[in-house]
Design brief:
With about 375 residues, the chain is of the alpha/beta class. It has 14 helices and 11 strands.
């Protein structure tokens, strides 16, 4: 391969977005991708491509140093546990700064604004703060780390914030399929809030532009499809492709998880654990405990039936009874897709269009057609 072609390190290269980015780079020929992978076992999709592969662990500095040598840019797509999300990212940032890469593109998420984004988050200028969304908080911590390296090490960084990424192989798409088929997903309050979608190839276009556009440096961009799609249209289209009807519920009908007080809940559950058959079968092997258990059991049996029942209720709690005609909801308010339907803000990619020349070439209708065609070829439909 010609050495004039920029070498780009792609972390998370075997993931959904990383695999597609490797494919497009290989097909277009403008960049030479180097795939950083944890194991060849997960590289089946991109193994057919003429890629340079580097096997290693993001949490191992030596692996990262080896992978980044000779690269002029990095696209960071890796996900994992907190160790990978934080330490792994910092290892890549440190190596990128040391080797003076010309561009570091980090893929974040609109989830940094939580489940109830402020009205101002239509644009990227709205400050992101910690919320009740654990994943969003982790992505926010990553963004702050990237910005720190940009500021203190003069590392040329770009941060992209995509929303729900759909298309072939998409975990979001496959998740919708699974939930619709299992009957666990419904349209909430008519589904008129924006779904915030981006087709995977549109995101790839933004990634490629971010690698070489000078105006991208030190900027944060939303990357969305050109058309704002409601949850009603998105879920109805998916349900139609599956040949299913889409349930509709009002938000007040959803099953709510009660708030838990840690100390109170621990004290309530502890007796149940201590009296469980599994624990008793282990601890009764100790002769003293076995003798004490027999004494307690005889004392319990000597109590009146009413007193025994009262003790059982205190330990197990009262049974949950529904009013006559009441049907317990099978739709969980805490489900990520159901909770996301409460987001009222449509994030705009106007800044990406202005500074990057981003065009989102695949329309929503085209994206859904391509996704459905893939699902049929993969025998998901």
């Amino acid at each position: 391969m010609s050495t004039s072609i920029p070498l780009v390190l792609i972390t998370g290269a075997t993931g959904f977005i990383g695999s597609r980015l490797c494919e497009v780079m290989s097909f277009l020929g403008g960049f030479q991708p180097r795939a950083f992978i944890h194991s060849t076992a997960s590289a089946a999709r991109i193994a057919r491509l003429p890629l340079e592969f580097v096997t290693g662990d993001l949490c191992d500095r030596a692996s990262v140093e080896k992978a980044i040598q000779g690269c002029s840019a990095v696209v960071h797509l890796a996900r994992g546990d907190k160790q990978v999300m934080r330490n792994g990212l910092e290892n890549v940032l440190r190596a990128a700064a040391k080797h003076h890469v010309s561009r570091f593109v980090h893929v974040s998420s609109v989830a940094v604004y939580g489940n109830s984004p402020p009205p101002g988050s239509v644009s990227e200028s709205a400050p992101a703060k910690r919320t009740d969304n654990a994943y969003g908080n982790e992505k926010l911590e990553q963004e702050l780390l990237v910005l720190r390296y940009s500021r203190t090490c003069s590392l040329p960084t770009v941060i992209l914030r995509p929303p729900n990424v759909y298309g072939p192989y998409s975990p979001f798409t496959l998740g919708l399929v699974g939930k619709l088929r299992s009957g666990k997903l419904a349209l909430v309050d008519g589904g008129q809030n924006p779904c915030n979608l981006v087709y995977v190839d549109n995101l790839v276009q933004a990634l490629l532009l971010s690698i070489w556009k000078k105006d991208a440096v030190s900027e944060i961009f939303f990357v969305t499809d050109a058309e704002t799609i409601t949850w009603e249209r998105s879920l109805q289209d998916m349900a139609h492709a599956l040949g299913l009807s889409l349930p509709r519920v009002e938000r007040q009908e959803l099953a709510q998880e009660p708030k838990k007080h840690v100390l109170r809940e621990s004290l309530r559950v502890l007796p149940r654990v201590l009296l469980s058959g599994e624990l008793r079968s282990v601890v009764r092997q100790v002769p003293l405990i076995h003798s004490m258990e027999n004494s307690l059991y005889r004392a319990f049996q000597a109590l009146s039936p009413e007193t025994q029942e009262g003790i059982r209720l205190r330990i197990n709690g009262p049974p949950r009874l529904h009013q006559k005609g009441e049907t317990p909801s099978r739709f969980d308010a805490a489900d990520n897709v159901i909770a996301a339907q409460n987001r009222r803000v449509a994030h705009s990619s106007a800044k990406a269009r202005r500074l990057l020349g981003y065009t989102a070439p695949i329309s929503y209708q085209q994206g859904m057609c391509l996704t459905e065609a893939w699902m049929r070829s993969a025998r998901i439909l």
